[in-house]
Write the structure tokens for this entry.
Amino acid sequence: MNLAQVGRATFYRNFTSIEDILIKHEDVLATEFNNDYENIQHKSATSFLYELSKHYIKNKEFYITLYKQNLTEIIKKAIEKHINKKITPKNTAEKYGLNFLIYGLYGWILAWLDDDMKSTPDELLVLMKKYYSQPYDISK
């Protein structure tokens, strides 16, 4: 708080914890990503993941810090909030599909963070196209 030149009373009037600041910052970053993605002309699942990976690289220090501090719940809640803001399921099947999307995306991000985000967005794009263009047999 000294570095920010903010008194304790001012801090707690606006935030209840340090985690609240991180949540607010994640919300700002997610809104920034959504605004940037709106300007993308050719939208698809792979373009979304590609642009999202570029956003994560741009903010790598923040996301790696959340991961290392076991605060990835902040990432999950941001994904839920911003996807639920854009998509409203009309029935049970769509609700399940939406949750599959949210938690699949969250799992993908966690795996990438666990790998210290070593893969570039271009490398991830190649992997995504290869993985999602072939049938995947989970019965093995």
Remarks:
- The chain is about 70% helix and 0% strand.
- The mean pLDDT is 87.
- The helical segments are 8-14, 18-38, 45-58, 60-68, 73-86, 92-114, 121-132.
